[in-house]
Amino acid sequence: MPLLSANYGYNNELWPLLKPLPYQFRYSLYGEWHVAMTESKDRSYVPAMGLAAAAVQNTTKQTLKRMTSELNRAHARAIGKGSYSAPTALWQAILPQIMSYENMIDTVVESARYLSALGWDVTMFMLLDALSDESKERVKNDGLTASAWLQGALNAAYP
Fold first, then answer.
1. How many Cβ atoms are within 10 Å of 26's Cβ, its own excluded?
2. Mean pLDDT of the region 25-42
3. Residue 16: which pLDDT band, with cuts at 50, 70 and 90?
4. Which of 35, 79, 117, 128 has its CA 20 to 30 A from that of 27?
5. How many angstroms separate the Cα of 87 from the Cα of each of 8, 63, 142?
6. Is position 3 within any domain?
7. What are the start-end ranges of the H helices in the chain?
8. Counted domains in the chain
9. Is residue 1 part of a domain?
10. Could you tell me if residue 49 is inside a domain?
């Protein structure tokens, strides 16, 4: 899919094939897909997919640089469009940004409107992957409340 241009139709054709599969299998597939695009030292790395993922990440980072604290639907649509071809690469670029800059959370949550069903499934995989990473902050310094990026992600997942 990363080698195809960003097209909502591709996602809509692929999702009915993946949807009946158990989530364990789908998530392992997304994990393999993620490794094939990003881990250059891994045997399953595919250089063409890595280049496509790098292009999506670069575009996403450029969009995130132009974002401000106010909601901008054009930026939200650009982020949503990036999820059509390489959603794992997109979230790999977005998650560190929203963990660092709380003012981006609202626009990223707004971009969730433009995700396909497959994009939502991959988003949940990437959020679970981020939550399972010990180095990522899950609670605020008070130790009681969830960190802002996690609250924003949950708002996007469960409006």
1. 18
2. 80
3. very high
4. 79
5. 12, 15, 33
6. no
7. 8-18, 23-38, 47-66, 73-82, 87-100, 105-111, 117-132, 148-157
8. 1
9. no
10. yes
